[in-house]
Give the backbone structure.
Amino acid sequence: QVQLVESGGGSVQPGGSLTLSCQASQNTFSRTAMGWYRQVPGKESQLLATAPRGNEVVISDIMKGRITVSKDIATDSMNLRMYNLKPEDTAVYSCNAFPQTYSWGQGTQVIVFP
């Protein structure tokens, strides 16, 4: 079973930056399209970006212009770099296959306090 572990979250002021990391297992990034998601309690999960097999990265409109995504197949990991964070970006951020098929990891909490 693929294990997903997210890290790097924390508290930041508006305008700040954070880099989140997703560590997978079983060579997931070499064989599966993956994505970054976020969720606020009580609301639906939002897809932020997808990283299909290969080097392509597709950023959704939700945080376009404020995030970059990089993946490293050798380490089976993926980063999400977020810039100019806003209070409405407060959420739990997670990675998963795209479309989502794996069990969710614990995610990493991002808090942008006004």
